[in-house]
Amino acid sequence: MKFTPSNMTWLNLPNMPLPVKTLFTGYLLVVGIGLLMAGLQIMMTHGMADGEIGLSKNDIVYSYYGDRSHSTLESKLNGSMKANAPDAVRADIIKWVRKGAPKKDWDAHFKKVFEKHCVACHSNIPNIPNFKNFEEVQKLAATSDGASFQSLTRISHIHLFGISFIFFFISLIFSFAVGIPKKLKVIAIAFPFGFLILDILSWWLTKLNPSFAYLTIIGGIGYSLASTFMWVTSIYQMFILSKNGKVYGNAWEQDL
Ligand code: HEC
Hints:
By secondary structure, the chain is mostly helical. It contains 10 helices and no strands.
């Protein structure tokens, strides 16, 4: 039998053969969990950057533009390291850091303070600075410029390649949806890619000027909403809309 576009009446999400639905669903589930984990990770790393729980404009400014009036050491002592030393000790360290963390005070006093409160972790846990070395303390006592250009190029290209793959397949699956106006389909498919570019661009702009941090939030919300819409529509059509047994016809042909 020769297939012409018009008799491929099963080519739509509700009527797709079960093995293909299984493939699509498996992918959507795994990617969905992945996106939730990514959201959680953003909350945990960037979300605490300003010392308060939850993602805010300040977190994005601190992560990309940096905090050019406070050092990483000070930000951390007011942020995720807050619980590790009593307030008086933290204030004492911060005062010293603001003076430029002179070596003579380290030798006379702060070496012991760090030994008492910090070194239990900061000398044993790999990949975090070793506070037995003054040089490593000193480095973090300098004010922060946020993400380096080097790390921005690295995370930018990883994000662009990786996330566009995720969106490509979510959108491809969604392109088989039925009963969605062609215009809305085109917008839903284009949005995540557009917002992804906006998101990455906003990191670079925020690095130059903190007022661009809002773009990062808009980009993130934009592509989360667009991909959630496609995700939910696809699952709904494959498993709920399909129950009425109706033949929906060739979804791609209907969008010609
Ligand atoms: C219970 C273990 C623990 C203790 C105690 C601890 N830290 Fe940390 N510290 C960590 C971990 C884990 C990280 C990496 C995760 C993060 O940045 O929150 C970290 C990260 C940091 C960073 C950021 C390093 C970087 O490269 O960005 C600074 C600064 C810091 N700690 C300062 C301190 C100071 C000062 C003290 C003592 C008052 C202290 N920490 C005590 C576990 C600890």
